[in-house]
Amino acid sequence: MPLKKGIYIVDEAKLKLDGYAKRFKFIMGHDIGKIEIVGRIDDKLILKQIHSRPEEP
Fold first, then answer.
1. Which residues neighbour 10 within 8 Å (Cβ) at sequence distance 6 or greater?
2. How many folded domains does the chain comprise?
């Protein structure tokens, strides 16, 4: 599945949730560590590195 479609699915699911369920996070593994997909603006993704491997600052 394309990443953009996955983000759309997560965003739509969050609209239907309430309470702690809205805190759902979209996290993926990467060579530098774990990255959270925070959101999107038009076709641009907003990413946040939440964990890095010891060899990556």
1. 24, 26, 37
2. 1
- Confidence band (pLDDT; 50, 70, 90) for 57? low
Answer yes or no: is 16 within a domain.
Answer: yes
Q: How far apart are CA 45 and CA 39, in angstroms?
A: 6
Phi-psi region of 19 (alpha: psi -120 to 50; beta: other; left: phi over 0): left
Residue pair 35/50 in contact (Cβ under 8 Å)? The answer is: yes
1-42 pLDDT, tens per residue? Answer: 888 888 888 888 888 888 887 787 888 888 888 888 887 888
Start-to-end Cα distance in the chain: 30
